[in-house]
Amino acid sequence: MNNRLINTKVAGGGGGCTDIVDNYDPFGGSGVALYQLNGDATDESGNYDGTATNVTYGTGVFGQAGVFNGSSSYISTGIQTSSNDVNSYSFWFKTSGNVSDGIFFDKNDPTGTTYGFRRCSIDSTGRVYVAAWGGSGNWVISSTGYDDNQWHHVVVTFNYPTKQLYIDGQLIGSTSSVLGTTPSTNPIVIGARYDGLYSLDGSIDQFRIFNEALTPLEVEALYTEELCICDGTVDTLDILGDGSCIATYPLDGNANDLSGNYSGTPTNVSYGVGEFDLAAKFVNVSGTHIQTSLPNNDIEGISFWVYFESGVTVGRPFGSTVSSGSGNLSIELLPDGSMNAQIQNLYEYTSAGALGATGWKHIVYGTDRNLYINGSLISTSGLTQSFPSSNMLIGASRLNYGSFAGLVDQVRIFNKALSAGEVTTLYNETACTVNRDDVDGKYQSIATFYDNIYISTDFGDKLFQKGDGFEYNDISISKNGVYQTAIVRTNTGNDYIWVSSDYGNTFVQKGLKTNYIGVGVNYTGQYQTAVRAPGTIQISSDYGQTWTETGTLTGNYSKVALSGTGQYQISGNRYGANMTKSIDFGVTWDSIPISQSWWGHAISETGQYMLSVARFANIYLSTDYGVTWNTKATSRDWRGCGMSFDGQYQTATSADGVFRSTDYGNTWNATSLGIADWGACAVSYSGQYQMVSKYTELYYSSDYGVTWSVRLSSTTVSGISIS
Fold first, then answer.
1. I need a surface site. Which of 283, 393, 562, 569 has the fewest CB within 10 A?
2. Where on the phi/psi map is residue 402: left (φ > 0), alpha (ψ -120 to 50), or beta?
3. What does pTM read for this prediction?
4. Model confidence band, residue 313 (pLDDT cutoffs 50, 70, 90)
């Protein structure tokens, strides 16, 4: 899933986010009902309370969820709709891994094909089906199964004659159907067919009904249950205000088109950091692309951003959906900095060096044969070619051939050629701004032994499993949650660094050494440091992509902490030896002659405040960038620590309690958490959000460590990080 901040432009103004979990009508007029299923079938709108039959309630994505027994469970909503009505359904589901055919929702009547029906179901292989039928029509069917004991988000839209299926924010498919003409008298049923048969064996949460076909951005908002108002232009389809932009692909973790008409189907596509939020990341492997239904003959102008690496980048970020030969859309970048572009067989090419130095490039081309790079008109030499018409392909020259290697962002398609002034508008497009409070504590990542990594993008309200069941020793994330780096230990003794640049959605293996034990990431994610026990310190200054050793300095290191800038870093030996500190981004390290068994470290944003804890010793605090150190608190078996960006809020764990300071580490008091073998600890940017672990439980606080609740159980936590 694309775990990120959703920049949903539903209205203008202010860059903020609002929780919509309890709002039955989040988009202003289209909401009909919301069944949160928190112990009953109450509708939050107050209009359509359901009647539950043999439904129990268990843990959901948000609070509780309805649990259906696979034989006799269902909820009758009392809501009736005509089969030709425009509407949408949104819900979360989880099945346990041995599902039989079951129905998520049904609107049906048994009296002939003139009535028709609407239904969403799951089969015994875990594939999700959507039908709207009145004598003829096709199902939308997911190509993969989702019967994996994980929560998945589904949106189904009906806009006669079209029906669409989204799973986890991504458009799965769309088809057309002939619908019945006679209104059915049966209400919408959740969890079974209209007559109670084909009951689902699984759980459903947050079931919503709308009277409109939801847009892709509204689907994304429901996926995060947050409505984020964008004060930039990147999520505006009609950016020029004249209706000429017929499709926009932000590529923020999916291939959805903002118009809702031409959403693409990605194959082997991942997502990395883009010019605006995320970008589609293509690799030079046959079959890597995004296939769309947008006819090339409808394209009069194209605008997009691409990351060009001088001397390296090669390939076609745009092509045509043909299986052989060439189509009538093609854009190619070459390592010498030249490029060529073709729309509707109108072909232009540049001289070498036109793309300039390495970096993000904004490119516009149209049927007027004008080619712009970063807002400037480029001199070209034109040709006319003759290739067959087809549809637009992103990331390759044609199907199963000529894949691009690189990043593409913010693709816009126009039904006209663009003027110089309009090109300038697109070049100066603005991103959605995010207030600090929007990301403070929003992104949370937990590493566990013998299990998985757990990722949250909504202040810990829901956790999603990532990883492959490895042993994870530690994890650290950037302040905006984009960059996440984990330490993996294997049975072979070959450990490695696992790096993500897309909010923890996908991880890539990097450095390979033995005995990795801890990792730290600075606020931007650019500077990262990994320590070993025993072994050397390794550093990265390019967001975790490449790693180098810091000379011959070796030790049995514990955790490592970085300041906000990454300039100041601190670690320590965990078996009765000195601490070590760097003031030059980890390039060189100096010993601090305080010998203890060091287990945890934390640093403020500027590096002025440094906190270190050791077993059977005091807390050690520096307020002058690590030059001098003072002891604080009582000698205990300390295990972990964290602090806010300014150093005011500090928390430390020990074998006999969790302690907190609200005065820059000067005085420490026990929290409400009792005596236990407490371990990992993390504190958010402001200090408001905190997490600590013990045994097989993870505890969470959203009030600066005053009150705590269990967030995760039955797993052993090895590392925690909060934005």
1. 283
2. left
3. 0.56
4. confident
